[in-house]
Amino acid sequence: MTQLPAAATTITVLPHALPECPSARVLLFAMRRMGANGLSDARAAHAMFTMFGEAFRRPLTLMRGLMADMAAHAAAAISIAPCCCARMTASEQVLLAILARVEIRPDSARLLMQDLLGQRHVDGVLASAAAVATAFADEGRPVVL
Fold it and tell me: Residue 105, SS3?
């Protein structure tokens, strides 16, 4: 059996570059921290506080709700990379794409969510994603990919 070079393995497991959008980067960081350390992760909360100032509670609470909804409704594991990774997994990229388009292209976001979760009925989780996207947009920090 031949072994792939480390670079080929990294590109296979982490096929997407980090997003340019600062809001998407904070979402990715919070998602990774909460996925690894639980919904009450202090560094995820600090990242939200740093981005939103005193208005951090709404986006943070809604992000926690989205993460809990996804964990409860996913039929298969959703791959999340460690915080130090300079690239994204396919699942992370899909979630950011959902958050970027849930308000403007909801049918597309629904299909992506169905693929991500492996479920046909994703209305509740999609509503959570829309709430997160709206919270970011309301504070002047829309997710753009």
Answer: coil
Distances (CA, A) of 17 to 9, 11, 51, 59: 15, 10, 22, 24
* Helices and strands, counts by H and E, the chain: 7, 2
**Residue 72: count of CB within 10 angstroms of its CB:** 10
3-state DSSP assignment of residue 49: helix
Query: Average pLDDT of each block of 10 consecutive residues along the chain (145 residues)?
Result: 54 86 97 96 97 97 98 94 92 97 97 97 97 98 95
Coil, strand or helix at 123: helix
Among 29, 15, 41, 46, smallest CA distance to 83 is for 29
